[in-house]
User: Which sequence fits this backbone?
């Protein structure tokens, strides 16, 4: 589904984020991405969501080359990829419903469709009773659930989570993980960067370790020993 | 249904942007008001001087001045020549005293004090004959003939006066238009800055919109609408100023500007036409400002 072929990412200041990456991620996989700070995890995830451009190499998504996608068509690709951030990135002046609806309005849905889909995903993440709450009235875990709801509102094929549990306590972290696993069971491909190895143990998922911009380990299924 | 809802979202966000930066929006509106009001004055000036110049140039009348020391017999011989001239349609002799009285009446009106002052000065005017030619071509030929007549010191074609007037008004027009052009650029710049501030304050929101797959149109339209709102509000006062102001000037001066020969153009339909042009300019200026601000952001990768 997602194919990296000799992909490198070099920043204008000369720093190499990713070096000669070759990787395939199949549809429906749950992939953990681990590595020390500055290893290139975020660069890797940002390239998938087109937040960063590939410097050299080729990136394919569903057999389509998206390496140099036209800026007028990039938005169509981005609708297939949902992104969840460590710091939630909710809009503080909007309610839970409005934060989710915002993502649906941005893609041109009608009022009825926005309402229907927004409520569906809000209930899916278990926040049906907090629809009219503002972010500052929610706990960290609840805010992250709203962020997940927004990320999946457009029914993307892939969900990228860049350290989604980074600001959460262990209990909330596992709650978030269970939501992501539920989405994975429904067929979505989940790619999650994390420092929280407790989440990885016993997960039975694929784990990719990145260090200094290259993949140093890639365990498919089984347990991963850190 | 879908496009109506989308337009509602764009309009809602556009209004929100204006309100969130009300002082910047106000300064942009004020600049537009000043610019367009000045443009309206320029337009009215141009229209009236063009009409006046055209009016003069279309006349087939000219004025011939007799020499200061002309005798009765010489006047009679010139009048006889004009009576039988094939290019002359009509002619009228006006002696210097009658002529002076007409000029003084035009200038002073009912002001007796000014009239008294004029009457105390000596009469430097010459006897004249106003000649109406059969057509424009005849006017030119006649002018050539009369210029060399020994009893006439000068022949004034209306287009000579028109040339002098249009030369002066052209110069004034150019200065005013340059000034209006500079103000318009300033207005575009101010609106551009207003929109940029909005973009900056909504950075997070816009980055989330890009991330979830909002199209370039969806990102840019609210800012264009913000510019449009500024343009529409900025156009209201200049349009009212044009319509009411010009009509007031026209009514207060009975359609005459300064002296009788300068007839003002009728307010209708001029004020509506100029008002319409002001509206279009206002909208264009504000949309340009918005477009410059938002294009760079929207088209970045």
Assistant:
């Amino acid at each position: 589904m997602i194919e990296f072929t000799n992909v490198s990412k070099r920043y204008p200041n000369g720093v190499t984020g990713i070096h000669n990456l070759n990787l395939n991620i199949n549809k429906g996989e749950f992939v953990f991405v681990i590595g020390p700070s500055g290893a290139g995890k975020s660069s890797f995830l940002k390239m998938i969501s087109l937040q960063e451009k590939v410097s050299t190499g080729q990136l394919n998504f569903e057999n389509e080359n998206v390496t140099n996608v036209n800026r007028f068509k990039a938005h169509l690709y981005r609708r297939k990829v949902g992104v969840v951030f460590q710091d939630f990135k909710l809009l503080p002046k909007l309610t839970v419903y409005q934060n989710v609806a915002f993502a649906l309005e941005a893609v041109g849905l009608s009022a009825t469709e926005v309402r229907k889909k927004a409520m569906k995903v809000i209930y899916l993440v278990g926040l049906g009773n907090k629809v009219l709450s503002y972010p500052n009235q929610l706990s960290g875990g609840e805010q992250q659930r709203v962020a997940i709801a927004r990320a999946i509102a457009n029914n993307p094929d892939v969900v990228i989570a860049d350290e989604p549990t980074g600001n959460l306590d262990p209990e909330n972290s596992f709650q978030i993980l269970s939501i992501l696993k539920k989405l994975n069971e429904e067929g979505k491909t989940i790619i999650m960067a994390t420092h929280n190895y407790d989440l990885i143990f016993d997960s039975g998922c694929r784990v990719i370790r990145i260090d200094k911009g290259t993949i140093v380990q890639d365990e498919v299924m089984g347990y991963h020993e850190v | 249904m879908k496009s109506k809802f989308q337009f509602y979202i764009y309009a809602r966000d556009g209004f929100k942007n204006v309100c969130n930066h009300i002082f910047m929006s106000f300064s942009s509106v004020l600049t537009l008001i000043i610019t367009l009001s000045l443009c309206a004055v320029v337009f009215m000036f141009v229209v009236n001087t063009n009409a006046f110049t055209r009016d003069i140039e279309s006349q087939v009348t000219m004025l011939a001045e007799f020499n200061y020391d002309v005798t009765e017999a010489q006047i009679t011989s010139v009048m006889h020549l004009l009576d039988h001239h094939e290019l002359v349609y009509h002619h009228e002799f006006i002696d210097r005293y009658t002529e002076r009285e007409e000029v003084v009446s035009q200038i002073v009106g009912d002001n007796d004090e000014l009239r008294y002052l004029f009457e105390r000065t000596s009469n430097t005017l010459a006897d004249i004959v106003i000649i109406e030619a059969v057509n424009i071509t005849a006017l030119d030929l006649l002018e050539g003939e009369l210029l060399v007549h020994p009893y006439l010191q000068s022949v004034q074609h209306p287009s000579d006066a028109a040339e002098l007037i249009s030369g002066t008004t052209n110069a004034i027009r150019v200065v005013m238009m340059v000034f209006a052009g500079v103000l318009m650029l300033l207005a575009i710049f101010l609106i551009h800055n207003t929109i940029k501030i909005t973009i900056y304050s909504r950075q997070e929101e816009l980055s989330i919109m890009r991330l979830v797959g909002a199209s370039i149109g969806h990102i840019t339209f609210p800012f264009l609408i913000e510019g449009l709102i500024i343009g529409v509000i900025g156009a209201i006062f200049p349009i009212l100023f044009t319509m009411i102001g010009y009509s007031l000037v026209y009514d207060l001066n009975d359609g005459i500007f300064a002296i009788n020969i300068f007839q003002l153009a009728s307010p209708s339909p001029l004020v509506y036409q100029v008002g319409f042009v002001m509206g279009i300019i206002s909208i264009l200026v504000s949309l340009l400002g918005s477009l410059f601000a938002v294009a760079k952001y929207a088209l970045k990768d």
In short: The mean pLDDT of chain B is 83. Chain B is about 75% helix and 10% strand. Residues 158-201 of chain B form the longest helix (44 residues). Strands of chain B lie at 61-66, 88-94, 128-133, 152-156.
